[in-house]
Write a structure and sequence with these properties.
Elements lengths: L1 E10 L2 E7 L3 E6 L6 H12 L19 E5 L5 E5 L2 E9 L8 H4 L5 E6 L13 E2 L6 H9 L12 H4 E7 L6 E2 H5 L4 E11 L2 E11 L6 E4 L10 E5 L5 H4 L7 H9 L5 H17 L1 H7 L32 E3 L3 E3 L5 H20 L4 E6 L7 H15 L5 E5 L14 E8 L3 E8 L3 H8 L11 E5 L3 H15 L8 H4 L2 E5 L6 H10 L3 E6 L3 H4 L1 H7 L4 H18 L4 H16 L6 H11 L10 H16 L2 E3 L10 H7 L8 H10 L6 H4 L3 H10 L6 H17 L1
Parallel strand pairs: 3-18, 3-19, 9-10, 14-17, 17-18, 21-22, 21-23, 23-24
Antiparallel strand pairs: 1-2, 1-6, 4-5, 6-11, 7-9, 8-13, 11-12, 12-13, 15-16, 19-20
Length: 706
Amino acid sequence: MYLSKLKIKNYRSIKDLDVDFQLGKNVIVGKNNAGKSNIIKAIDIVLGESVPTYYKYENITENDFYTCKITTEEGREKEQRTNKLEIICVLQRLPDEALNFEEINKCNGFNKYVQNKIYRPQFRIDEYRFDIDDFSNEEIQPLFELDLDCDDSSSSSFVDTYSKQWVGSKTTHKLKFEEELSDKYEFAYVFRAEITEEGIKKDIRFLYREGQNNAWQMAFTAPLRNELLQSAIIPSFRDPNNTLRINQWSWYGKLLRASIDTDHPELVQSFDKLKEASEKVFANLKKDINHSKINVAFPDTEISIQFNPDSKIDVYKQALIYVDDGFKSQLQEKGSGIQSAVIIGLFNYYTKHIAHQASSLLIVEEPEIYLHPQARRVVSDRIDDFLDDNKNQVILTTHSIEFITSAHDSLNIILAKKSKSIGTEATNTNFSSPKEKSILIKKQNTEMFFADKVLLVEGGEKYIIEAVASYYGITKKPFLGPNWLNEKNCSVIEVEGKTEFWKYYNKLQELEIQNFILADFDFFFRSLGDFFTKTSWENENIQKHQELNGELGKIDDSLPEDLLEEIEKLKKFAEDKGFKLDAKKVRREMRKSIRLKKFTDVPGELQGEVKALIKDLRRKNLFLTSGELEDYFTENLKNETNGKHLGKKEIPVFIVSELLEEPSDIIKFIDCDEYIKFLDIVTADIIDPSTINVSKQEEKTTSNVQ
């Protein structure tokens, strides 16, 4: 069983929303205030913890009704609150899934409408069903208009034809749960709340059917909820006392009750001793509060205070969870990561060993909250373990890529966003091709959100920069040391392509994380203009680049006349031999081969202006090298890689994994001068502590002299 569809109308930021879920992992993403939490809260209202006082439970207030802006006759704009909201959850039963009638039979029964026998006595009793396709207002309105009491004389002629039939497990119920539900594979809950003069009126309908080709049968109440799909919801605000609420209806309460033998001899003996001890401890207090002059209670009543419950049945309610991670304390005193992991693990244990249901639903809001990357991965692993090869269902809301890194086809991404006209919207998408999945499975880049400084590189330069940084920290600025990148909380991030720099730059600027871009010189021609367009860069740099790029483009796009003539000859020769040659494509490819890639390719009369612009960009932490990475390979490296057929991205890995025995070896294989200049910019604000000490000592000496 899993939640397959959610429909929400007029709830909080949601005017009208449809979301499709699937078995396995479903991830709701979107920026802050997009309405992700409201989607989770809506599910919680219908599928969350079931309590007998559900209709009295204050899970809906007037502030939960959607508010929109309208224009009055006078032309003024004002807010108007809707007076009805609806939440619909559809559950899908798996083809080979057996319902847990052991739990279902513990529930109260419900009634449904059936046709009276007097009209068609020769046939079985016909059920009154509803054709509902998309749960529109018109389709679900009759569900709430029908009267529960068919004996009401004021009812329409409908009640003369149909009457109620009870379904349940009691002997008085005409139809048993097993008979009614065994062949049903879709279940729906239709919840409605309405603001009336008497207050907020709430109602819920339970629907079920054999499959998509059948009409829905309606039950007037919804006693079956967690019995069909056991759910656990962990909100963004972690509160174990609330999430692990102990009562006879919660999954955690059921877990504890099933695990405790209240007649265990040692437990009974301990209870007796504790009760005897509590009577001694509270003897004086008991005497005082029961004194006639105090009158704490009514006359002829006596108050006693004890440490343990008087009934063994309630002993499970006193259970506490302690965690020892070097310091033993209660779960609620631990961090969010431990709390989440423990709750998920306990729910996983409950669903596998206590509930014995085919599948269960786990909902976690922002599992990454307050967690560093490693702790996120621990919680992510717990979630994957709960999924149990997608036998269970998980719904997450997140801003963190750790929880959407999956190569499985079952990953369902739901993008939540908010528009002014209709509030929160949701769009489903799946990552099917290997190229699409590669976006999700790359985890390393998320560490940039935890860095004080981020060094953005195109690709393989990441490994070169990290190696040069170690050399730099030993020889150029020894006070840094070889591991200064980690010690100074710096991350080197490969953006995987020149056209990707602007995405990372914008996000880091928004988060006010200091960042530095290292790009090849051909970035100047191919992507710098697009980078300027997509970032809030200074206008004078943009204008100057446009002017220079225009001049350089004229040179770049031209081919010699004699070369063009040779291409045409080649085309004619191919056609004479019966082959087709695309001369335009040949010219385009040849232009690529002669495109300006190094600073030395720039004509002398323009070099001064290009150099001035590059210098200005470096001052703003955008560092363009004078060539490409290959231009900095030494003869030693060329000899080492000769005949090895290594690709462009493989060579940097080969250098750091095979050739470097110590940090200083990097200069044997790479001309590091420009990379060192880049690191000078990165470390410009990192001060040598010994210099600080000297300055303080000089200041102290000067003060003494004075």
